[in-house]
TrEMBL record:
Keywords: Copper, Heme, Iron, Metal-binding, Oxidoreductase, Repeat, Signal. It holds the Pfam family Cu-oxidase_3. This is Copper-containing nitrite reductase. PANTHER family: ALCOHOL DEHYDROGENASE CYTOCHROME C SUBUNIT, BLL4482 PROTEIN-RELATED. InterPro entries: Cu-oxidase-like_N, Cupredoxin, Cyt_c-like_dom, Cyt_c-like_dom_sf, Cytochrome_c-type_DH, NO2-reductase_Cu. Its cofactor is Cu(+); Cu(2+). Residues 1-29 form the signal peptide. Belongs to the multicopper oxidase family. SUPFAM superfamilies: Cupredoxins (SSF49503), Cytochrome c (SSF46626). GO terms for molecular function: nitrite reductase (NO-forming) activity. Binds 1 Cu(+) ion. It catalyses: nitric oxide + Fe(III)-[cytochrome c] + H2O = Fe(II)-[cytochrome c] + nitrite + 2 H(+). It comes from Pseudomonas aestuarii.
Length: 472
């Protein structure tokens, strides 16, 4: 009796699983045909398409153009970029795991060269490169299934590949996991790339691509989002304190690995290599060319956070910096500024000795005298003695003598707030002075030499460098 029941159970199970199998085959066939068609809306970086709310697969149509465009790589410096969608990095594609992607690549008729696309999210030969290789004025289509979730780089793979990538031909495709991604308040899309121009960093005019520099892996520029200053000044990224920020960061290369770091923040989570697992409490994460990472953090204190490649001469001498400007109320229990006071030994002569490397001839004192009389004397008085409690003295000023070269900052950017000079308290506003590098260096040297028994401390080049640093 027992055995008969058992056998019957097995037969029933076999039948049942057979039916399930049939049903699921039918289901697959039905979904393939019935997949809703969605045309991807592409937006310019650092923006990206909105998070996916769908709970089922779709056929996502992506119309991606290839555009060769001349534009600024740095203020006053132009470069011929080759792009996906007109931007560097190329427009981000966002799909859901299990989606079918119908990719249309259009090589605009106005272009000069053949191009194609290799997407690292594709399972198949060349990532689509062979099928999409087309001359200007043509369109190629291919379809792939987004099998695995993750953040993937795409790039042009037309020979010479390094050159096409060096000219800006890379972007990313985000394949969201089926269950979706946790909600955040801000999402940004940033890619680093190395650029090889015939002229030096920030040399003016239209610059050509330098193949030898590329082969030697000696870039002139290392940039976030394709331009020096693409993420600074007016174009800085923004967030409010307490908001959850997620950055999709990738490296197009073609050559340099990025040590991606945000100065003033700790990543709560890093989805290393753009994969599905995360590490917590990370300071700097390594991203290879053709690779990516997803970082998440909550800025808690207002101010500027600085995105850098922590290979720092790339950041400070080749352009790899961006800003995230954080707004919100101060959080003194997390971060508060104390006072800066000179150590006793630093207040006197030794400091002057440290900063005495500038020759007298670098900036003529006569020029400094002229600037002083024309600009500064109105407030600080012609002999630099100031007005007690209103305009601090520049002559024999202990504040000035402490770090004379830093006074250039005050001249360029102004100063306000608490100030103690020679024991007297001030709380006024000194407006920023619109002077060129020569004049700033000249007036500071003049004040230091003629009014503070010091030596020349600044050259115009040093002032220019100070401006670059301040820009960050
Ligand atoms: C419109 C009035 C005004 C002009 C013009 C002006 N300053 Fe000032 N300056 C001030 C005030 C006010 C302060 C104090 C600001 C504070 O309280 O933070 C100040 C502070 C300073 C300080 C720091 C304090 C000290 O005494 O060492 C320096 C250095 C300085 N000024 C240099 C200059 C130089 C150089 C020029 C000319 C290129 C100049 N200022 C032009 C009003 C002026
Ligand atoms: Cu190309």
């Amino acid at each position: 009796m027992k055995e008969r029941n058992y056998k019957r159970a097995i037969t029933e199970f076999a039948l049942l699983s057979c039916m399930v199998a049939l049903a699921s085959t039918a289901a697959v066939a039905a979904t393939e045909a019935d997949l809703p068609v969605i045309v991807q809306e592409l937006v310019a970086p650092p923006a990206l398409p909105a998070p996916i709310t769908r709970k089922s697969p779709a056929r996502v149509v992506v119309n991606l153009t290839v555009e060769e465009v001349e534009r600024e790589i740095a203020p006053g410096t132009r470069y011929m970029f080759w792009t996906f969608g007109g931007t560097v990095p190329g427009k981000m594609i966002r799909v859901r795991e299990g989606d079918t992607v119908e990719l249309h690549l259009q090589n605009l008729a106005s272009n000069k060269l053949p191009h194609n696309i290799d997407l690292h999210a594709v399972t198949g030969p060349g990532g689509g490169a062979g099928q999409t290789l087309i001359a200007p004025g043509n369109e190629a289509v291919f379809t792939f299934k987004a099998l695995a979730s993750g953040l993937y780089v795409y790039h042009c793979a037309t020979a010479p590949v390094g050159m096409h990538v060096a000219n800006g031909m890379y972007g990313m495709i985000l394949v969201e996991p089926k269950e979706g991604m946790a909600k955040v308040d801000r999402e940004y899309y940033v890619m680093q790339g190395d650029f090889y121009t015939s002229g030096a960093y920030r040399a003016e005019g239209l610059q050509n691509f330098d193949m030898q520099k590329a082969v030697d892996e000696k870039p002139t520029y290392v940039l976030f989002n394709g331009a020096d200053g693409a993420l600074t000044g007016e174009s800085s990224l923004t967030a409010n304190t307490g908001e959850k920020v997620r950055m999709y960061f990738g490296v197009g290369g073609p050559n340099l690995v990025s040590s991606f770091h945000v100065i003033g923040a700790i990543f709560d989570r890093v989805y290393g290599d753009g994969g599905v697992r995360y590490q917590e409490n990370v300071q700097t994460t390594l991203v290879p060319p053709g690779g990516s990472t997803i970082v998440e953090f909550v800025p808690k204190v207002p101010g500027n956070l600085t995105l850098v490649d922590h290979s720092l001469t790339r950041a400070f001498n080749k352009g790899a910096v961006g800003l995230l400007t954080v707004s919100g109320a101060a959080q003194p229990e997390i971060y508060s500024q104390g006072l800066k006071t000179p150590l006793p030994v630093m207040a006197g002569a030794p400091v002057k000795a440290v900063a005495a490397a500038v020759p007298e001839s670098a900036v003529p004192l006569a020029r400094g005298k002229g600037v002083f009389e024309r600009v500064c004397a109105a407030c600080h008085l012609p002999d630099g003695s100031g007005v007690a409690g209103v305009f601090p003295p520049l002559a024999n000023s202990d504040f000035f003598q402490e770090r004379p070269y830093e006074m250039a900052h005050i001249v360029m950017y102004g100063r306000s707030g608490e100030l103690v000079v020679n024991g007297e308290h001030y709380n006024g506003v000194m407006p920023a002075q619109d002077l060129n590098d020569e004049d700033v260096a000249a007036v500071i040297n003049y004040i230091n030499v003629e009014m503070n028994q010091g030596k020349p401390v600044l050259t115009p080049k040093m002032v220019s460098d100070m401006r670059q640093i301040k820009k960050l």
